[in-house]
Structures are given as C-alpha cells and as structure tokens.
Specification:
Chain A is built from 4 helices and 21 strands. Chain A is of the alpha+beta class. Chain A has 4 domains: 93 residues, conserved putative lor/sdh protein from methanococcus maripaludis s2 fold, CATH 2.40.420; 57 residues, OB fold (Dihydrolipoamide Acetyltransferase, E2P) (Beta Barrel); 157 residues, Orthogonal Bundle (Helix Hairpins); 77 residues, Elongation Factor Tu (Ef-tu), domain 3 (Beta Barrel), CATH 2.40.30. The two termini of chain B are 49 Å apart. Chain B has 14 helices and no strands. Chain B folds into 2 domains: 42 residues; 215 residues, MetI-like (MetI-like fold), CATH 1.10.3720. Classes of the chains: A alpha+beta, B mainly alpha.
Chain lengths: 463, 294
C-alpha cells in the first residue's frame, strides 16, 4: 500500500477536505432553506377552498311581495257626454264630502248646447204638426182608392162570371148537338158513314170545354189582380204612421235632455258629490269635453278594502289558487297585524306574472297603504342538493360545479379541481337541486374559493 | 561536453513526453467533462435560446444542433424557479438523501461485519458462499426484480422506502470491496492482538475497522454514487410519486423544458461533487487497496 507522507501536503489536503465538508453542510442548509421557501411560495399560491357534500332535502321557496290596499267597490260620477269642462276641484286620492263641488261645466257652452237642442226640438214638433195634417188628407184619399179598388174587384168578378157562363152555354150547345147527331145515327135518320161530321162535332165540344176552362182561369187572374190593388191601397197608411211615431219619440227624448241640461245650468254648471268618498280615478281635463265614461270614480271612506299584489314570473311557479299566505299589515289604529289569508283569485299578467286580490274584510286599514304577503312552499325531496354558491354557469351555457378529488403527487396527497356539468332541477336562495352522474353523496363540492379556479388546479381544502 | 549534451537532450525528450501526455490526459479529461459542461451552459440559457438551438430535435427537422458554450442571453431563471418555485424537486431531493443515507448506514451495519467474517475466519462452505456472493453481485437487476417484488409484496413493503433500502442494504458489492481491505491486514497482527487479550469484537472494532477505513469509505462512496443515481428499483417498487428519489424526477421534465432540466441535473450533480471532493483521496487509496492482493 502506498504510504502518504506526513508532510505539509497532508495538512493541506486535510484543510481542503474540511472545506469541502463545510461547503457540503452549507449546501445542505441552503437546500433546507430553499425547501421551506419554495413550499411556502407554493402553498401561498394555492387557491383556498371550502367544500361540502350534497344532501338530500326539500327546497323551500319563499314567496314574498308587497301589495297596495285599494277600494273593493268603486262608484262613478257621470256627466252628459260632449260638455266642456271649465274647472276641476278634485284629483286622484282626494277626499270629499256630500255636497262638495267636484267639477264645473262651462255655462256658456252649456247654454249654446241647450239652444241647439231646443231648436232641434222645435223642428221636430213642426214636422209632427205638418205630418198630422198630411195624414188626414192622405186618409181621405186612401179611402177613395180602397173603394174604387173594391168596385173594380166586383166588376171584374161579374165580368168573369159572365164570360164563364157564356162559354158554358156554348159547351152545352155543342154537347147537345153531338148528342142529337148520335141519336140521329141511332135512329137511322143520318147515315153512319159521315165521319167528318162527328169529328167536327167532337172537336166543337172539346173547344167549348177548353173555352170554359180558359174563362175560369181568366176569372181567377182577374180576381187576384183586383185583390192586390185593394191591398196596395190599404198599405200606404201603416208606413206613414210609423214615421210620425218616431218623430214623437225623438222629441220626447230631446226634451228630457234639455231638461237635465237646464238643471245643470241652474247650478251654474257645477257638479256636486252625492255622498262622501275618495277619488280613485278622475278622467277629466280642463278645456276638454266629457266622454261617455264616468267622469270621476270614487270609493267610500269606510267601504270594502282589497289588497292588490303582483307576483313575478319566477314567483308565479310556486303560487296556486287556494294557497295560504301570511299578511302583514298596519292598521289605522297604529298597530300591525299578521293574518293568514287564502289566495283565491289569481289573474295572469302579460309578463308571465300573477296578480291577486285579497279581501281585507274586517281589517281597519287605509286606502293606499302597503302590506306584505309571504309564504314558504316546500317542494318534494331532492336526492342531491348543494349550496347555491357551489352552482356555477348559466341556463344558456349550462350549469356546472367544481369538485375536489384526491390525488397522490410528488408533494403527497393533494386536492385537484374537477369540473362536472350538472342539470339544475330546482333552486331557492340557499340551495340548488341538481342531477349529475359525476356527483354522488360522497363528492366534495367546492362551496367557496378565494381565487378563480380551472379544471386541474391544485387547491388547499380548508376544514 | 557530449555528456552535457546527452543530459540536456534527455531532459528535453522527457519534457516533450510529459507535455504530450499532459495534452492527451487533459484533452481526455475535457472530453469526459463535456456532458457536464453542456449541462452547465444549458442551465444558464433561457427557453427561447434552447428552442433555437435544439430546433432540429424539438421540431424533428433535419439539420444540426447549434451549440454555444457561453449563452447569448444567460439567465438564472431556471435555478430560481427550481429552488424557490418547485417544491417537488426539493421533496425528491430529500427523499434521495434519506434513501442513500439509510442504505449506507445499513451497509455499514451489515456488509462490514460480513466482509470481516469472510476475510478473517475460516468456516465450512466459506468459498462456496463467497462464490454465491460474487454471482449475486454479477446478476443484473432485471433478473432478480421479480423475486424481490414478490418478497416485498409478501412483507407489505411495496410502495414504501424500505422496498428500496432493504435490498440495497443487503447488497453483496460492498462486501466484496471491503473484504479485500480486511484481507490485507496481516494475520500476525490479529494473532498478536488476541494474545494480548483482545476479544473478537474488540479485534474487529479497534483493529480491523481503523486499518481498513479507506476501503470501507471507498465502498461507501461508490455505494453513494450508485444509489444516488438509482432508477430501476424505485421505478419498480414505488408507485407513490411522493416517495420517488430525485433520479426519477428528471425524466418527468419534457424536452420543451430543457433548460429547466439542465438546472435540475446540475443541482443533482452538486451532491456527488461534494462527496467526491471530500473523499477523493480515500476513494483512490481504497480502490487501490481493494485491487492489490495482500
């Protein structure tokens, strides 16, 4: 074995070795420090998430809305159509007492309308007078026409009877001649071989019979014609009577209108309230004319109250007629009350929502105040329900959830994010019921995270 | 005068010879160090420069790799990322330290006494047993892998560090190396110690180990280099990535991250360099003493 000399060289080599050992130790310490720093940087960069497991539960849908107290009964105050409004003293929401002035019709315009109507009435009256004179003349003339028509009828019958008799006489004569000829032939007075004679006799009989029938027909025609003439003469009279009656009725109606307008004019155009109430809808405008509809709608002070409320399209899915809701309303006396009410009336709205009207009978409330309705409807039990914060995505793009799954990496057991598409069955403010083949009762679904996540990200799961 | 000329000419030729030898040796040394120098240069080049240089390899185009020993745009980004932003690398680094340390400690406890027994004592079947040791030493891992797997599976040691440590602890290679060192100790010295009243254990601890220290250290150093770069056993017996040594991390890095991989390789190499720097003299004398017959 080669012996290393125990010289200065050996000492130097020993020093070098010590330096190498020291360097190695420093290197190991440096690696320890780097391990800690790198681990700290790595874990500080990991998204922190909390998870939960799906549960089986019923979803409760809270439906709440605010409504407005409105009148249950509404009454109308009317004015004649076509009158110009000069003054309005009440508007929506105003209260009034019995005898209060509500609005005023322009008196000058009223006067001119009355005059116009009176003129029209006078014309009608004049027409009536003229009509009655003409009627008497016409009656006399008509009587004459009827008499003449009847005379013509009688004459026509006589003439027709005469014609028929004549034809019958000719017929009997022709039959008599034929009979005599036949007797002559039988007696031997006339030879049997004269065929043309008997033919002409037969033909004469036939023609005579034909003439009698023609005469009878002519008699019927003449009788019919004469009868029609009599009817025509009588008709003229009934049409003329109907026109006179119409005029009379028009005049009577016009008179009534004029009377009511004069009554209004006597009050200087003012319309007064017949009873106390609150204006709910005033449909007048100064300077405009009144229409066919009610000028003012009002409700009684102590009348029936109804709560009107609407539900959105999303809420409408959970409301059905017959559902019970909790009504929370302030009373006139100052306190508030909670009552259970039944939704018995539902009306569909254009936007897909619902409107309901609930009677507030027995409750002392004021018109125009608000009240709230609330109900919690429990659905059927869903097998897989997650917190609403875990549900991501949208209806258009599709819903999904992020889950975490364990995997063994170089740094040991870590959690990695997986994105799982789901089908949303139902949801409320807190939970969502989902369906997915990738989600079981043991799946850890990410509930919250402090950084944006993507599929495959490594995360830190907080307890 | 002729004698002077002869002496000068001899010195010149000797100098020439030594110069030529030096050139050959240094050149060969540089050639052997080329891979390490490539790694060092590559670890200081950024990804863009790597892509440009390795275009022929990365994009499977025809052509040659363009290499520069000094990068155009040197950067320490890979080392920074490796040391401060890749805890996985450091986790595996400490796995390797743990595995190698346990193996070496185990070999000290198992292989050294075994070698002493073979070197000092005579017993029945010694030659056959030693021959068996040599045969086992020569068998490649692929031959014994299945039997090891089955045994480890029966002991429920698979997927644990013991699956890698225990087979290495009972390796026959260090026994062979240390045996030669123990065999060099003169018999007379041992007899003299026995006569002086030393027991067998004292003989082993106070005579054998100090005299064969270099051989033992050489075996340990060689063992360290072997197990620091061990790949087959961890790949076969360790499925859990958190138990992997550093030697299995490097292949996980893709070609597109060649600069990062170079930096990781350099850091893995540093430990071996330190071990060599500390024990190089011991290694040389130990290998020599193992090779020379007593």
């Amino acid at each position: 074995m080669k012996q290393i000399p125990d010289t200065e060289m050996k000492v130097k080599m020993k020093d070098k070795r010590n330096m190498a050992i020291a360097g190695f130790c420093i290197f190991l310490v440096f690696m320890v420090v780097c391990t800690l720093i790198s681990k700290a940087i790595y874990t500080s960069g990991l998204p922190r998430v909390t998870t939960s497991q799906p549960q089986k539960k019923n979803l409760g849908h809270e439906v709440s809305t605010k409504g407005l107290v409105v009148q249950g009964q509404e009454f109308g105050i009317y004015a004649k159509a076509g009158l110009r409004v000069a003054t309005i003293t009440v508007y929506d929401g105003d209260s009034f007492e019995e005898g209060d002035a509500l609005f005023r019709i322009d008196p000058d315009d009223l006067k001119s309308i009355i005059e116009e109507k009176e003129l029209h009435l006078n014309k009608l009256k004049n027409q009536q007078k003229a009509g009655s004179y003409e009627s008497a003349d016409n009656k006399q003339k008509q009587g004459t026409d009827i008499a003449r028509a009847k005379e013509d009828y009688d004459q026509a019958i006589r003439d027709a009877d005469l014609a028929v008799n004549r034809k019958r006489q000719l017929l009997s004569q022709a039959e008599k001649e034929l009979e005599e000829y036949k007797k002559s032939v039988k007696n031997g007075t006339v030879s049997d071989g004269d065929a043309s004679a008997i033919t002409s006799l037969n033909q004469a009989v036939t023609e005579a019979k034909q003439a009698v029938e023609d005469a009878l027909l002519a008699k019927e025609a003449a009788q019919r014609l004469a009868g029609r003439n009599i009817q025509d003469a009588e008709q003229t009279d009934s049409n003329y009577s109907a026109n006179l009656e119409d005029n009379r009725l028009d005049a009577a109606y016009l008179q009534k209108e004029i009377d009511s307008l004069k009554e209004l004019l006597s009050a200087d155009g003012w319309v007064y309230a017949g009873e106390a109430g609150i204006v709910t809808s005033q449909k007048l405008a100064v300077g405009e004319r009144t229409g066919d509809h009610a000028a003012i709608l009002y409700a009684l002070d102590d009348g029936q109250r109804i709560l009107e409320a609407t539900f959105t399209k999303e809420q409408a899915e959970y409301i059905a007629a017959g559902d019970k809701m909790t009504l929370d309303i302030r009373l006139k006396s100052g306190g508030s009350t909670k009552e259970e009410v039944v939704v018995s009336y539902l009306e569909n709205l254009d936007d897909g929502g619902l409107k309901t009207r609930i009677s507030l009978e027995g409750l002392d409330v004021s018109l125009g105040q608000t009240a709230s309705l609330r109900m919690v409807k429990q659905t059927e039990a869903y097998a897989t329900c997650i917190s609403i914060g875990s549900l991501l995505g949208s209806q258009m793009e599709g819903y999904y959830v992020y889950t975490v799954e364990e995997y063994e990496g170089i740094l040991g057991t870590e959690w990695r994010v997986r994105k799982i598409p789901v089908i949303l069955l139902d949801k409320n403010a807190s939970y969502a019921a989902i369906e997915s083949a990738g989600v079981t009762e043991n799946t850890q679904i990410i509930q919250s995270n402090d950084k944006e996540l993507q599929e495959g990200d490594v995360v830190r799961v907080l307890p | 005068m002729n004698r002077v000329y002869k002496m000068t000419g001899r010195r010149f030729s000797e100098k020439c010879k030594s110069s030529v030898l030096l050139i050959i040796v240094v050149g060969t040394g540089i050639l052997f160090c080329l891979p390490v120098l490539v790694l060092l240069a590559g670890s200081l080049a950024d990804e863009v420069e790597w892509t440009q240089r390795m275009e022929a390899v990365i994009r499977n185009n025809s052509g040659y790799i363009i290499w520069k020993w000094i990068p155009d745009y040197p950067t320490g980004e890979h080392y920074r990322r490796l040391l401060f932003y890749t805890p996985q690398f450091l986790a595996l680094f400490w796995n390797s330290i743990k595995i190698v340390s346990c193996i070496l400690i185990g070999q000290l406890l198992i292989a050294v006494p075994s070698a002493w027994a073979f070197a000092v004592y005579e017993f029945r079947g010694k030659r056959k047993l030693f021959s068996l040791y040599i045969i086992l030493m020569l068998l490649p891992f692929q031959v014994t892998m299945l039997s090891k797997y089955l045994v480890l599976s029966d002991f429920n040691l698979l997927d644990t560090h013991l699956a890698v440590i225990l087979p290495a602890v009972f390796s026959t290679f260090p026994v062979f190396l240390i045996y030669r060192s123990f065999a060099d100790i003169p018999r007379e010295l041992l007899e003299a110690a026995r006569i002086d009243g030393a027991g067998e254990v004292r003989l082993f601890m106070q005579v054998g180990i100090p005299l064969s220290g270099n051989g033992i250290l050489a075996a340990m150093v060689l063992g360290f280099l072997e197990y620091w770069n061990m790949m087959e056993e961890p790949m076969a017996f360790l499925k859990d990535k958190s138990l992997w040594p550093l030697s299995l991390y490097l292949p996980e890095i893709s070609v597109e991250q060649a600069g990062f991989a170079s930096a990781a390789s350099m850091l893995a190499l540093i430990v071996s360099l330190f071990i060599f720097a500390i024990f190089k003299d011991t290694l040389a004398s130990g290998i020599i003493s193992s090779g020379i017959k007593g």
